[in-house]
Every structure is written in C-alpha cells, then in structure tokens.
Target: Asparaginase
Amino acid sequence: MMEDSAGAVKLAHENPIKITSETIHDMANLIVKEPFNLPSPHITAAEMLSIKKLVEASILEQPIDGVVITHGTDTLEETAYFLDLTIQTSIPIVVTGAMRSSNEIGSDGLYNFISSIKVAICDQAIGKGVLIVLNDEIHTAANATKTHTSNVSTFQSPQYGPIGIVTKRAVFFHHHPEHQEKYPLEKVSKRVTLLKAHAGMDSSLFYALKDMNIDGLVIEALGQGNMPPQTIKGIEALLAANIPVVIVSRCFNGIVQDVYGYNGGGKHLKDIGIIFSNGLNGQKARIKLLIGLHNTESQLEIQRMFSL
Model:
C-alpha cells in the first residue's frame, strides 16, 4: 500500500519489497512470484487456494528451503490458517505484512519481510507449520489474530503468546506447537457463514440463512458457549436441514464448553447437535469448517475435527 497526497491509502503499482537489498541477498537467494496484487479485504478462499497451489507447485519445481508470503493484515490470519491446514510440507512457510504504508514514516513492511526470511531459512522453523511473523515476534497460524486496527504490534496470540522472537542476529523459538492437522483440498465451493451473537438475538437470521442454502454456519456465541433462547428454533431449523453449526465464543480468551443447562445454554446447544470448537476464533473456525465440508459430510467427522 501507498499513501497519496490526500492521505488515502491505495494499492501501489509495484510491491516495494521487490527492491533489491544487500541485506536480503546476503541472507538468501530469492525466487519471487506475484500471483495477484490485492488489498486483503478482497481476498477470498479462491485466492487462498491459488496461493496453496502456487507454493506446492514451486516446491516441486526446485529445492526450496522456505517460503515467505506477503499479505495485507486484515485477512492475513485467515489465509495463514487456511494454508496451515492444507499445504502438505514441513518446510517453513511464513506469512507477513505491514501496518504502515510503504511510503509512510516508520514503515514496517521491509523490516517484517527481512525478519520473515530469517525465520523461513531457520532450521528450527522446520515442521512448525505456517507461521506469522511481524514486529519481531513469531506466532502460529492457529493462534495469532489481529488485535488492533493500526498498531504495529497488532498480531497477538491470546492465552498462548508468541512461540519465538526475531533479533538482529538470530531467531529464537521457546515453544513448539503440540500437533498439526492437514486436510486435502483441491477446490473451494462451499458457502460457510459467520454470525456474532448478541443480547436479544432471535431466529430471523437463522431462518434466512436456511433459505439461502448455506453449507455451514459458525456462531460467535456468548460467554462459554450460550445463545439467547429466541434463537433456538432457527438453529434447530438449520440442523434439521443437515447444515452443521459450529460455535466459538465471542470472548477474546477462553474456549466454549457445555456448562450451562438452561434453555439456550451450552449443554442445551450440545444436546441438540451444535458442534463446539476447541479455542479457535470465529474467522478461523469458519475456515476450518469450509475445509472440512470439502472432505466429509459426516457431522461426527466434523465434530472430531473441531475437538483437535
């Protein structure tokens, strides 16, 4: 991105990280590919799949030690998680971005790019899945989320923190992901919607989604996984139409659990067939459900996916 004379931030004609730098050339031999030039709100699952296929094809073409993907920050975590679930490789893959425009004072794009190259060529990054690197921190794709609209330290991993740091001279990892999931994916055609629960919510949106013939729904529910009682009839209509419904919490920290037994409480929701996600935020649960629906129609198998 580049800021114009009126202060509006727009697409630059050329990606500034293409600028040759002795620092970069001293670190690695770069193979540069630019499949598209889009603001991150324009990214869809189709572009995510295109990146996946480009990375996999590039790995087959020649020996590659690591991959760095530059991406706008608004949907960066969704693309990173999509790739984490679908790319079948152990080589380091790093997704990075910038919070300040390329011609803005204190622009962080090139710095984050160099930091990401350091991580991508680091032996300790092998086998850790897709990583997100910005502001000297290394996060997993599953946990990192954008937490501030403009601050350069926007990417955080609530509850877990970064798994490593980048310094001027070295890359240090202090945690390792416990497990990784990989799912085959060759196309994206399913329609999965994300809704956020609120006080006084009723069933109208759920009935409308059923009529839209969606393939799946993720709800950012209240607290530990509860919904207003007026929503239950609409949710039951979706379940009766064999549309899987997954819930996460709209809270910043914590996971959903079937604790409360009142009408609309977590225990009630689980009893009627809603799937509880294990700690993902709403946008990532949507990505996981989208990928899951391309692999299975079994509610039990999808439930198993979200228990991992």
About this structure: The chain has a mean pLDDT of 94. The CA atoms of residues 136 and 167 lie 7 Å apart. The radius of gyration is 20 Å.
